[in-house]
Amino acid sequence: MRVLVLGADGYLGFPTFAYLQEKGHHVEIVDNFSKRQWEAEFSVTPLWPRNATDSRGIMYCDLLNSRRLYQVLEEFDPEVIIHYAEQPSAPMSMSGREAAVLTQTNNVIGTLNLIFGIVKHCPKAHLIKLGTMGEYGTPGIDIEEGWLHVTHRDRAEVIPFPKQPGSFYHLSKVHDSHNLLFAAHNFGLRVTDLNQGIVYGVRTKEVDALTFHYDDIFGTVLNRFILQAANDLPLTVYGEGKHIRTFLNIVDTLQCVELALKNPAKPGEFLVRNQFTEKFSIIDLAHAVVDAGKIVGKSVTINKIPNPRKEAPEHYYNPTNQSFLDLGLEPQCLTDNTIAEMIVKVSQEPYDVSIIKPRVRWSDA
Amino acid sequence: MRVLVLGADGYLGFPTFAYLQEKGHHVEIVDNFSKRQWEAEFSVTPLWPRNATDSRGIMYCDLLNSRRLYQVLEEFDPEVIIHYAEQPSAPMSMSGREAAVLTQTNNVIGTLNLIFGIVKHCPKAHLIKLGTMGEYGTPGIDIEEGWLHVTHRDRAEVIPFPKQPGSFYHLSKVHDSHNLLFAAHNFGLRVTDLNQGIVYGVRTKEVDALTFHYDDIFGTVLNRFILQAANDLPLTVYGEGKHIRTFLNIVDTLQCVELALKNPAKPGEFLVRNQFTEKFSIIDLAHAVVDAGKIVGKSVTINKIPNPRKEAPEHYYNPTNQSFLDLGLEPQCLTDNTIAEMIVKVSQEPYDVSIIKPRVRWSDA
């Protein structure tokens, strides 16, 4: 199939390209390289330099430039579009007005342009859009996949599962989902919306060293813990760490995206799948890293620090990922050995201790 | 109170200013006059020229210009901000990519800038934001005011009432509501979100001739019917006209806004009120205009034309407006005499027959 990957310079985009190409698809990749600019703006770099080959073959395209985007869609005529091309950082989006505006403009307007480009140039293409489990927030009811069956005053209805996101970044993804649901129904587009958990992993079968961010802006909590464990720093847990999040290995991201590709939304359908394999509280995750450290001779400690974010400190959390399990997803779960391997790989690299501490507080505007 | 009205050049903004000033408030008014530009773009004009005094005292401010907006907020230090400053047309938002992007940029980013301006310069101000009943769409369950009590797999929760808007304009208001809910919770802002029905009325006690749009872009269905009845044209009903919408007289808009002002959201609260007084199917509304026509000697006919929009042709619809009734709203309902008076007033003016027919079809991109 002709597959277009948007945001191919990112942590997920490049291995998706390599994986799908290996599977025999004709994959074209584009990016506007804005993530590199944002990294410079916040003075952060990934742990190891991007592989020079990573950007080989990436065509320049900014989704905010509709003319260029339309050109790409017209010339390549994709059958599948995998859309990772968004500003991915919640802390960045909360670092002030300019960043909030940049995030929502880049993500929402970029995706709007994409909607119109698809209608005009490849209306049958299946759009696979990456969202996040964070869109749902932490409601006191089980989190379904996009839709909720309710009975209200004796009437039954299926309604969009309401979203309660916790940052301007997460909000941008919620706005995208609303625009895409409408676009599917109004223009007959085929849209799969993947609400993804926190992805970890430093390599795939096809790519040896994936971009590894451990900083406060683009890093994830598990990456931070691994970097800290590898370098004999205490793991910084925000608050009591009793908040629960979903996770998956990047090899399962690839598996899920391929399953989504093989099981497309129908014309006019907005298909929602939750894309994760496990859930942990942050403190349990920290303890797993402590245990994994022992395997490689590290004595890891935990340091609780004030939570810079506003999050429910304790909450019910029961999201489902049944849709991918039904399609045959075989989760590669997080083991002490997986963590230990990452600690070893990371411990060989020089790092910048100054970019770990959170600089962005949610309460500041 | 010091009240800032954003979007004071519009149909609702100017009479709100006049009404609140009459009530003794200190009201400052701003606009960027973009609606006049959009009218020119679509070659439409309101029925009678804007009163020259209408724009007297309006300060220029574009919400997309954060520096100017911050200056206004800092200098006036409003206690209440009434926010009408949005692109208000669903057909305009559906007229192509540029207009969709303009609508969502203007509305969503403008309101984002306003959020940050309030946090910085007047964090105690009560923001009254105009949304629309169209945000809810037409779900098969009763429409509550912003929140829905559900029980799901034996767990109870109060969730945001899910939105299913039907145009990029309505979507922009939904995005605003999500951003504002977050801003209230995250920054402690006081926000009232008013989901308003379709407003009608050609004058208030304070303003004699309100902007009257009967065109396909900025006109409302009732205005179109009144113009058609006044000029012996058949009333153009979209489809079978069985879709149901909510309505209110502009004097009730003023009453509601004043009630919202007097009963503000608390710090950190996102308070939702549905602002309408009645609901009618479009065909019933047309028949009401036919009946009113008889009072003034008009023999009015009805002409069903294909619906340019995508709307549920028939649907359950039961929204509540209990919140304003509880606060003492005394609805001024739509009577044959009210319609007849509007027909008479409108029939004295020259009009442009070419701007009535719908030019924008929802299915076109």
User: How would you classify the quaternary structure?
Assistant: homodimer
Helix percentage range of chain A: 25-40%
Largest interface (CB within 8 Å) is between: A-B, 53 and 53 residues
Enter the CATH topology name of chain A.
Answer: Rossmann fold
The low-confidence parts of chain A are none
**Which word captures the global form of chain A?**
globular
- Count of strand segments of chain A: 14
The CATH superfamily of chain A is identified as NAD(P)-binding Rossmann-like Domain
Number of domains of chain A: 1
Counting DSSP H or I runs of 4 or more residues, the number of helices of chain A is 11
Query: Which architecture name of chain A does CATH use?
Result: 3-Layer(aba) Sandwich
Beta-strand residue fraction of chain A:
15-25%
Distance between the termini of chain A: 46 Å
Rg over CA atoms of chain A:
20 Å
Q: Which strand order spans the largest sheet of chain A, edge to edge or round the barrel?
A: 3-2-1-4-5-8-12
